[in-house]
Design a protein that fits this description.
Layout lengths: L1 E6 L4 H8 L5 E7 L5 H8 L4 E3 L8 H13 L5 E4 L8 H6 L4 E5 L11 H8 L3 E8 L9 E8 L6 H24 L3 E3 L5 E3 L22
Parallel strand pairs: 1-2, 1-4, 2-3, 4-5
Antiparallel strand pairs: 5-6, 6-7, 8-9
Helix pairs in contact: 1-6
The structure holds 5-O-phosphono-beta-D-ribofuranosylamine.
5-O-phosphono-beta-D-ribofuranosylamine (GRF) binds next to helix 1, strand 5 and helix 6.
Protein backbone atom coordinates (compact mmCIF):
# COMPACT_ATOMS: atom_id res chain seq x y z
CA UNK A 1 0.00 0.00 0.00
CA UNK A 2 1.18 3.49 -0.89
CA UNK A 3 0.63 6.55 1.32
CA UNK A 4 1.30 10.19 0.50
CA UNK A 5 1.85 12.34 3.59
CA UNK A 6 0.91 16.03 3.77
CA UNK A 7 2.43 18.13 6.55
CA UNK A 8 3.21 21.73 7.41
CA UNK A 9 5.53 21.67 10.39
CA UNK A 10 7.68 19.69 12.75
CA UNK A 11 6.42 16.32 11.55
CA UNK A 12 6.46 14.44 14.85
CA UNK A 13 3.38 12.44 13.86
CA UNK A 14 5.03 11.48 10.60
CA UNK A 15 8.08 10.45 12.61
CA UNK A 16 5.88 8.26 14.80
CA UNK A 17 4.45 6.62 11.67
CA UNK A 18 7.95 5.91 10.39
CA UNK A 19 9.00 4.52 13.76
CA UNK A 20 6.02 2.16 13.72
CA UNK A 21 7.36 0.46 10.56
CA UNK A 22 3.92 0.06 9.05
CA UNK A 23 3.32 -2.10 5.98
CA UNK A 24 3.34 0.99 3.75
CA UNK A 25 5.44 2.70 1.14
CA UNK A 26 5.80 6.46 1.23
CA UNK A 27 6.31 7.62 -2.36
CA UNK A 28 6.01 11.29 -1.39
CA UNK A 29 5.86 13.79 1.46
CA UNK A 30 4.33 17.14 0.52
CA UNK A 31 4.49 20.36 2.50
CA UNK A 32 2.90 23.73 1.86
CA UNK A 33 5.55 25.25 4.11
CA UNK A 34 9.12 25.42 2.80
CA UNK A 35 10.41 25.63 6.39
CA UNK A 36 8.71 22.44 7.60
CA UNK A 37 11.02 20.24 9.63
CA UNK A 38 9.02 17.29 8.31
CA UNK A 39 10.64 17.84 4.89
CA UNK A 40 14.15 17.26 6.26
CA UNK A 41 12.90 14.30 8.22
CA UNK A 42 11.51 12.69 5.07
CA UNK A 43 14.71 13.29 3.13
CA UNK A 44 16.81 11.85 5.94
CA UNK A 45 14.75 8.68 5.55
CA UNK A 46 15.24 8.66 1.80
CA UNK A 47 11.63 9.62 1.12
CA UNK A 48 11.04 12.10 -1.72
CA UNK A 49 9.72 15.40 -0.36
CA UNK A 50 8.26 18.34 -2.26
CA UNK A 51 7.15 21.83 -1.28
CA UNK A 52 4.02 23.33 -2.80
CA UNK A 53 3.88 26.78 -1.29
CA UNK A 54 0.24 27.88 -1.08
CA UNK A 55 1.39 31.52 -1.19
CA UNK A 56 2.42 31.02 -4.79
CA UNK A 57 -1.12 30.22 -5.88
CA UNK A 58 -3.83 32.74 -6.71
CA UNK A 59 -6.55 30.98 -4.70
CA UNK A 60 -7.46 27.83 -2.84
CA UNK A 61 -8.84 26.10 -5.93
CA UNK A 62 -5.56 26.56 -7.82
CA UNK A 63 -3.56 25.28 -4.85
CA UNK A 64 -5.86 22.29 -4.37
CA UNK A 65 -5.62 21.41 -8.07
CA UNK A 66 -1.82 21.49 -8.02
CA UNK A 67 -1.78 19.45 -4.82
CA UNK A 68 -4.12 16.82 -6.25
CA UNK A 69 -2.07 16.58 -9.46
CA UNK A 70 1.11 16.02 -7.46
CA UNK A 71 -0.53 13.43 -5.21
CA UNK A 72 -2.15 11.53 -8.08
CA UNK A 73 1.16 11.13 -9.89
CA UNK A 74 2.04 8.74 -7.08
CA UNK A 75 -1.27 6.85 -7.15
CA UNK A 76 -1.60 6.52 -3.37
CA UNK A 77 -4.06 4.22 -1.64
CA UNK A 78 -4.04 6.55 1.32
CA UNK A 79 -3.45 10.26 1.97
CA UNK A 80 -2.24 11.03 5.50
CA UNK A 81 -2.64 14.54 6.89
CA UNK A 82 0.04 14.82 9.56
CA UNK A 83 -0.19 18.38 10.85
CA UNK A 84 -1.23 19.82 7.49
CA UNK A 85 -2.38 23.33 8.33
CA UNK A 86 -4.34 24.28 5.20
CA UNK A 87 -8.08 23.88 4.90
CA UNK A 88 -8.79 21.75 1.84
CA UNK A 89 -11.64 22.51 -0.55
CA UNK A 90 -14.65 20.26 -0.92
CA UNK A 91 -13.66 18.94 -4.37
CA UNK A 92 -10.23 17.95 -3.10
CA UNK A 93 -11.65 16.20 -0.06
CA UNK A 94 -14.22 14.28 -2.12
CA UNK A 95 -11.51 13.09 -4.49
CA UNK A 96 -9.89 11.18 -1.61
CA UNK A 97 -13.13 10.10 0.05
CA UNK A 98 -12.58 7.12 2.31
CA UNK A 99 -8.82 7.20 1.86
CA UNK A 100 -7.69 10.36 3.62
CA UNK A 101 -6.99 10.47 7.37
CA UNK A 102 -6.29 13.32 9.78
CA UNK A 103 -5.20 13.64 13.38
CA UNK A 104 -6.67 16.39 15.51
CA UNK A 105 -5.52 17.41 19.00
CA UNK A 106 -8.85 17.22 20.83
CA UNK A 107 -11.59 14.78 21.64
CA UNK A 108 -13.78 15.65 18.66
CA UNK A 109 -16.45 16.85 18.27
CA UNK A 110 -15.18 19.09 21.07
CA UNK A 111 -12.77 21.83 20.02
CA UNK A 112 -12.51 21.59 16.26
CA UNK A 113 -10.14 24.16 14.74
CA UNK A 114 -7.11 25.80 16.32
CA UNK A 115 -5.76 26.36 19.85
CA UNK A 116 -7.45 23.25 21.18
CA UNK A 117 -5.32 22.94 24.34
CA UNK A 118 -5.87 26.53 25.39
CA UNK A 119 -9.58 26.17 24.76
CA UNK A 120 -9.75 22.93 26.76
CA UNK A 121 -8.07 24.63 29.74
CA UNK A 122 -10.35 27.65 29.47
CA UNK A 123 -13.43 25.41 29.26
CA UNK A 124 -12.34 23.62 32.44
CA UNK A 125 -12.71 20.12 31.01
CA UNK A 126 -11.16 17.33 33.10
CA UNK A 127 -10.45 15.09 30.12
CA UNK A 128 -8.88 16.11 26.82
CA UNK A 129 -7.18 14.15 24.07
CA UNK A 130 -6.82 13.48 20.39
CA UNK A 131 -8.74 11.95 17.52
CA UNK A 132 -7.92 10.23 14.23
CA UNK A 133 -10.73 10.58 11.71
CA UNK A 134 -11.56 10.21 8.05
CA UNK A 135 -11.49 13.57 6.31
CA UNK A 136 -14.77 14.97 5.00
CA UNK A 137 -15.51 18.49 3.76
CA UNK A 138 -16.52 19.69 7.24
CA UNK A 139 -13.26 20.73 8.91
CA UNK A 140 -12.41 18.30 11.75
CA UNK A 141 -15.90 16.85 11.33
CA UNK A 142 -15.27 13.48 9.68
CA UNK A 143 -16.09 10.03 11.05
CA UNK A 144 -14.05 9.17 14.12
CA UNK A 145 -11.72 6.16 13.99
CA UNK A 146 -9.86 6.22 17.29
CA UNK A 147 -9.43 8.57 20.22
CA UNK A 148 -7.13 8.77 23.22
CA UNK A 149 -7.99 10.66 26.39
CA UNK A 150 -5.69 12.27 28.91
CA UNK A 151 -6.46 14.07 32.16
CA UNK A 152 -6.24 17.84 32.40
CA UNK A 153 -4.30 18.56 35.59
CA UNK A 154 -4.84 21.58 37.81
CA UNK A 155 -1.53 23.25 37.06
CA UNK A 156 -1.52 22.52 33.35
CA UNK A 157 -0.62 25.22 30.92
CA UNK A 158 -1.10 24.94 27.19
CA UNK A 159 2.39 23.54 26.66
CA UNK A 160 2.20 20.80 29.29
CA UNK A 161 -1.21 19.71 28.13
CA UNK A 162 -0.12 19.73 24.48
CA UNK A 163 2.85 17.49 25.30
CA UNK A 164 0.62 15.01 27.16
CA UNK A 165 -1.78 14.87 24.20
CA UNK A 166 1.01 14.64 21.63
CA UNK A 167 2.41 11.52 23.28
CA UNK A 168 -0.98 9.89 22.68
CA UNK A 169 -1.16 11.20 19.09
CA UNK A 170 2.03 9.29 18.46
CA UNK A 171 0.31 6.11 19.65
CA UNK A 172 -3.07 6.34 17.95
CA UNK A 173 -2.07 7.60 14.50
CA UNK A 174 0.15 4.58 13.75
CA UNK A 175 -2.63 2.37 15.11
CA UNK A 176 -5.25 3.81 12.75
CA UNK A 177 -2.93 3.80 9.75
CA UNK A 178 -2.00 0.20 10.46
CA UNK A 179 -5.68 -0.81 10.56
CA UNK A 180 -6.18 0.90 7.20
CA UNK A 181 -3.07 -0.67 5.68
CA UNK A 182 -4.19 -4.10 6.87
CA UNK A 183 -7.58 -3.63 5.22
CA UNK A 184 -9.40 -3.70 8.55
CA UNK A 185 -10.67 -0.13 8.47
CA UNK A 186 -13.02 1.49 5.99
CA UNK A 187 -15.52 4.26 5.62
CA UNK A 188 -18.90 2.66 4.92
CA UNK A 189 -21.69 3.95 2.69
CA UNK A 190 -23.52 5.52 5.63
CA UNK A 191 -20.42 7.55 6.49
CA UNK A 192 -19.25 5.58 9.51
CA UNK A 193 -15.72 4.45 10.20
CA UNK A 194 -15.94 0.67 10.44
CA UNK A 195 -13.21 -1.39 12.05
CA UNK A 196 -13.30 -5.16 11.51
CA UNK A 197 -12.32 -7.35 14.45
CA UNK A 198 -12.83 -4.61 17.00
CA UNK A 199 -9.83 -5.11 19.28
CA UNK A 200 -11.90 -5.07 22.44
CA UNK A 201 -10.17 -5.94 25.66
CA UNK A 202 -11.33 -5.08 29.13
CA UNK A 203 -9.63 -1.80 29.89
CA UNK A 204 -9.75 0.67 32.69
CA UNK A 205 -11.63 3.82 31.89
CA UNK A 206 -9.99 7.15 32.37
CA UNK A 207 -11.78 8.96 35.18
CA UNK A 208 -10.34 12.36 35.86
CA UNK A 209 -9.95 13.33 38.66
CA UNK A 210 -9.68 9.75 39.94
CA UNK A 211 -12.05 8.49 42.63
CA UNK A 212 -9.28 7.58 45.08
CA UNK A 213 -7.01 10.51 45.62
CA UNK A 214 -3.59 9.80 47.12
CA UNK A 215 -3.54 10.27 50.91
CA UNK A 216 -1.77 13.39 52.07
CA UNK A 217 1.32 12.98 54.29
C1 LIG B 1 -0.50 17.82 15.93
O1 LIG B 1 -0.88 18.29 17.19
C2 LIG B 1 -1.70 17.35 15.16
O2 LIG B 1 -2.70 16.81 15.97
C3 LIG B 1 -2.20 18.63 14.52
O3 LIG B 1 -1.03 19.34 14.19
C4 LIG B 1 0.04 18.94 15.05
C5 LIG B 1 1.13 18.45 14.16
O4 LIG B 1 2.30 18.13 14.87
N1 LIG B 1 -3.06 18.33 13.42
P1 LIG B 1 3.49 17.39 14.14
O5 LIG B 1 3.87 18.25 12.92
O6 LIG B 1 3.01 16.03 13.71
O7 LIG B 1 4.58 17.33 15.13
Amino acid sequence: MRAVVLLSGRGSNFEALLAARLPLQYPLVLSNNPEARGIDLARRHGIPATVLNHREFSDRAAFDAALAAEIDRHAPDLVILAGFMRVLGEGFVRRYHGRMLNIHPSLLPMFPGLHTHRRAIEAGVRVHGCTVHFVTPEVDGGPIIVQAAVPVLPDDDEERLAARVLAQEHRIYPLAVRWFAEGRLRLDASGRAVLNDWPWAAQDCLISPPAALPQAG
